[in-house]
Amino acid sequence: MRVQPKKIMCAVDFSDFTDAILAYSVALCTKFHAKLFLVHIAMDVNVSFVNSSIAFNKAMLQDEHIRNAQQRLEELVKEVTIEHEIFVCKGDPANEIRQLALKEKIDMVITATHGKSGITRLLIGSVTEKLMKTLHCPFLVMHTGQQSFIPRDDGQMELEKVMVGCDFSQDSKLAFDYGVSLAQEYQAKLYLTHVIKPTEHIELKRSDYINAIPGDYRAWRTSDYLEMQKKATEENQEKINKLGRRLERQLYFMVPEEFRSWCSPHTIMLTGEPYKELIKYAREQEIDMIVLGIRGHTLWEKLMVGSTTDRVIREAPCPVLAVRQMDGG
What pLDDT score does 299 carry? Predict the structure, then answer.
């Protein structure tokens, strides 16, 4: 199913990278003929102090920050020609973004992580997990420290290589649809990847060797022991190779036949720690966007939520689109 987002939210913190993030969002909106929602979240200030004058000053400062934020957003979109709307919200970033996205029926939320600026607070730790677990729509995270995202002079954005992580579950289908749709919209190369995380290597102790081949073990040689380990490893590797070939075929046939008429998908089987292999391959192939799907307790939920989420977001050399299909969404 082709996916075409019609409402895209861009959350900014007025850092040095705001212009680049906005340009990226505008380019996406232009490509999909979508409406832009430009948002800034003002952190809520606790004004419950004994000294009422301090509380009053805190409230005044926050009100001033909100007014300034409104003016700055208006200045940012002054030359934006696509349909747009601006919002300044006060409170917990994750909650405010989630609630506004639900209220406005947003199709995609875009934000960024970079250095030690304010937006990092939005993306590190529990707030990231809140967004990953509760957003009803895809969450596109840009790592501005790794790559320049400013589109061409004509406002268009180049998206030449899209990589989709697949686990073959029903829950990952929406992420797959997004990846294929983006590739089709931009006529980009489509890379379909699956990571096999092998079990721990079989390492036989001398006691295991004795139990495996009872007898006069005093006559055993070290070479016998090493040969047994080698055979076990080769047998295990052959099983992994057979599984890989089968999964690679499944990846290819995930792409509908009508899509294969314009696109020859690259199917890739990777083996190792998932986040490391995905990041490594993305760097090697100069991927422009990684698309991953998560939901419930599927493989990608375990892969993306928690510390691995931070690693993928922080280390990927390109934007990461995390697609979470909510119940009833």
Answer: 47
The residue behind tokens 């990571």 is 195
Q: Which of 178, 132, 122 is nearest to 298 (CA)?
A: 132
In a domain, 108, yes or no: yes
Q: Is the CB of residue 109 less than 8 Å from the CB of residue 140?
A: yes
Q: Give the model's pLDDT for residue 135.
A: 86
Q: What CATH number should be reported for the domain holding residue 170?
A: 3.40.50.620
Do residues 53 and 106 share a domain? yes
* Mean of pLDDT over the chain: 77
Task: Examine the domain organization and report whether 177 and 294 are in the same domain.
Answer: yes
Q: Closest Cα to residue 190, out of 163, 159, 158?
A: 163
Q: Report the helix count and the strand count for the chain, using DSSP H and E.
A: 12, 10
What domain range includes position 104?
1-157
Instruction: Record the tokens describing residue 213, joined without a space.
Output: 């081949």
Residues constituting the chain = 329
Is the full-model pTM beyond 0.90?
Answer: no
Q: Which two tokens stand for residue 77?
A: 């979109």
In the sheet with 161-165, reading across from the earlier edge strand, the strands are: 84-90, 35-42, 7-11, 108-113, 139-143, 320-324, 289-294, 161-165, 189-196, 266-271
Query: Is the domain of 104 the same as that of 119?
Result: yes
Which of 100, 131, 157 finishes a domain?
157
